[in-house]
């Protein structure tokens, strides 16, 4: 049961964090000037966006869940199973960020899910 909770946290919190940071960066705008003073202003602007902090917090939860999972399972099992975050990312991008996900990408997500299923079945 602990493993399932940690996998859930890795996939959901990690993907949620990436989606939140993506939304924050879209709010902060594009970097067009790479001089140090401009980069600092951009960083300060990005840090004022609430989505950035939500994303960082979720990514921290995912990171520590990954550490816990690696303490219990082999990396050859953990890393492939966490690839479910690619499927969660595509779903989140389509729903939360309103991005268009092409049919070719959905096929790729399906292939990843088949691979994860094979890894999960090999554990038994």
Describe this structure in words.
The protein has 124 residues and is an all-alpha fold. The chain has one domain (2-123). 82% of the residues lie in helices and 0% in strands. It has helices at residues 2-28, 36-47, 50-72, 75-81, 84-95, 103-123. The longest helix is centred in the first third of the chain and has 27 residues, at 2-28. The radius of gyration is 17 Å and the shape is globular. It starts with a helix and ends with a helix. The model has no long low-confidence stretch (mean pLDDT 94).
Short description:
The protein is mostly helical and 124 residues long.
Distance between the termini: 15 Å
**Could you tell me the mean pLDDT?**
94
- Biggest β-sheet, characterized? none
Low-confidence stretches: none
* Beta strands, count: 0
The helix/strand order is HHHHHH
By DSSP (H or I, 4+ residues per run), the number of helices equals: 6
Q: How helical, in percent, are the residues?
A: over 70%
Question: How many domains make up the 3D coordinates?
Answer: 1
Proportion of residues in β-strands = under 5%
Overall shape = globular
Radius of gyration, CA atoms, in whole angstroms = 17 Å
């Amino acid at each position: 049961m602990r493993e399932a909770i940690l996998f859930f946290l890795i996939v959901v919190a990690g993907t949620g964090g990436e989606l939140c940071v993506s939304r924050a960066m879209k709010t902060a705008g594009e970097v067009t000037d790479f001089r140090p003073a401009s980069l600092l202003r951009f960083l300060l602007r990005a840090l004022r966006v609430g989505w950035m902090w939500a994303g960082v917090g979720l990514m921290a939860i995912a990171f520590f869940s990954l550490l816990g999972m690696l303490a219990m399972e082999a990396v050859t099992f953990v890393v492939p199973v966490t690839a479910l975050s690619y499927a969660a990312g595509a779903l989140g991008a389509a729903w939360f960020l309103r991005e268009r996900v092409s049919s070719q990408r959905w096929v790729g997500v399906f292939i990843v899910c088949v691979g994860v299923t094979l890894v999960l079945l090999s554990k038994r």
